[in-house]
Amino acid sequence: MGKVAISIKVLPESPEADMERIVEEIKNKIEVRDVKIEPFVFGLKVIKLLVVREDAEGSEEVENALRSIKGVGEVEVESLTLL
User: Fold this and answer.
1) How do residues 59-82 score in pLDDT, each as one tens digit?
2) Assigned CATH for 3-82
3) Whole-number Cα distances in Å, 29 to 2, 25, 64
4) Could you say which of 31, 40, 51, 82 is the most buried, measured as most Cβ atoms within 10 Å of its Cβ?
5) How far apart are CA 55 and CA 74, in angstroms?
6) Domain limits, the chain
């Protein structure tokens, strides 16, 4: 089996969410290769992540870990690419 690169978009519950705290909690829960905070809509910002995992592990465990973080409203896998 190979590795996969997973591109994930994390939306906060509200525009007032502490994005830096959420990013720190993400880094404590999962190993990320890249993290970006970008403007989204209506003053909301989005966290974009790049996670590399073994192909057999999939993305469900990562998605569940992200959803468990206080302040996270939505988690969306944007792409999953075999490396």
Assistant:
1) 899 999 999 999 999 999 999 999
2) 3.30.70.60
3) 22, 6, 11
4) 51
5) 23
6) 3-82
